[in-house]
């Protein structure tokens, strides 16, 4: 296509995001689970204007999100199915968050961050986003659910691309929205392994419930703490996912150093993050890095070279960087 057409598509991408947001919020994918529906049926169920809803769904169908039949009904597609509620692979909550007012208003002030290096969120709302969520629990709840769906995607990529069969004792370091999901899946797939879940008290309570439901709690130990102070010793494999990118080099380095201090000579550390590829290669991480710029102070997505340098400063040596079919990579390291 001519460069002007490509640029027009890129410049209008936010409109696509908002259209997906509306379909997710209305629960269109849930309504199509059991088969195609007429626009009048969908409009009645969602309390929307039929012709306006049709125009929205026609637009999304042109991108493979739902499909319009010859009779004018709409039916599910594999892409549309990702907007169904719950279940493995659901991105409904993530799509809702992407189009929420607080989120796109922050992106609307990205110029401020580019000029100052400071978070646009703080500039727009006069406070950090964690304080904002504390004052808006409903938004915080949706955001937490969106992180759960993201973490599930990460977990799937880890399980598909790393062999845990001889890992012995695995220590998963808890993060918001995690609550032992990955540890439970690893232990379920490997009945001889044992696990340690490390988190603050609220996270441990949620993890206990999840690990019990998955039938692996009898092989787990829950340890209270936070990674900026210390980590439990004795693990054969430590896992830290979607965490390091939230912090500057100094703070991230502290956590990695505590990992090394807890590890013995044979232990390994897995850090799961988006690794920015070199050159002009397209990557979701390059856009997510702008999200880090506007939402928080200090965090950023790193290249492999930056991760290797960060690990070395903490006394760790990177021995492997494993890519996956997801945007995330597994960085495997040992103490130097």
Description:
This protein has 336 residues and is α/β, with parallel strands linked by helices. The protein folds into two domains: 83 residues, Orthogonal Bundle (Arc Repressor Mutant, subunit A); 200 residues, Rossmann fold, CATH 3.40.50. It is 50% helix and 15% strand. It has 17 helices and eleven strands. Strands 5-4-3-6-7-11-10 form a seven-stranded mixed β-sheet, with helices on both faces. Helix 16 links the parallel strand 8 and strand 9. Helix 2 packs across helix 7, helix 4 crosses helix 5 and helix 7 packs across helix 12. The longest helix is centred in the middle third of the chain and has 25 residues. The radius of gyration is 22 Å and the shape is globular. The model has no long low-confidence stretch (mean pLDDT 94).
- Write down the overall geometry: globular
Please tally the β strands and state the result. 11
Total domain count: 2
CATH topology of the largest domain: Rossmann fold
**Overall average residue pLDDT:** 94
- Note poorly predicted spans: none
Content-based structural category: alpha/beta
Radius of gyration: 22 Å
Report the sheet-strand fraction.
5-15%
For the biggest sheet, the summary is: 7 strands, mixed
User: How do the strands line up in the largest sheet?
Assistant: 5-4-3-6-7-11-10
CATH architecture of the largest domain: 3-Layer(aba) Sandwich
Task: Give helix % range.
Answer: 40-55%
Termini Cα gap: 50 Å
CATH superfamily of the largest domain: Vaccinia Virus protein VP39
Number of helices: 17
Order of helices and strands: HHHHHEEHHHHHHHEHEHEEHEEHEHEE
CATH class value of the largest domain: Alpha Beta
GO molecular function, one term: O-methyltransferase activity
Domain O-methyltransferase dimerisation: 9-81
Keywords: Methyltransferase, S-adenosyl-L-methionine, Transferase
Domain O-methyltransferase C-terminal: 108-316
